Amino acid sequence: ASKMKYVELRSSPTEAIRQLLESGYQRILIECGPRLVAEMMAAGLIDQLCLTNTSHSKADLPALGIGTARLDWSQQQSDTTFSVWSQIQAS
User: Fold this and answer.
1) Domain of 31?
2) Is 3 contained in some domain?
3) Can you count the helices (H) and strands (E) in the chain?
């Protein structure tokens, strides 16, 4: 049986992730929009990005809101608009 815990983000993403890790969670799913994705990627908190494409976008943000972060396409299911991306580690 899996356990779930919801954490309301009132401080920083780093603090929320720290709280979950201290509680023993090792796999954390975060559902968010482009601004929080950008903040978490900048903080190095995203190992994998599962992207669901929609027909709606926010015109004032770059694609995904992640600016120039580099991603490598790691999985795709045919006939879907869902894909999984892994962050490229800086060398």
Assistant:
1) 13-87
2) no
3) 2, 3
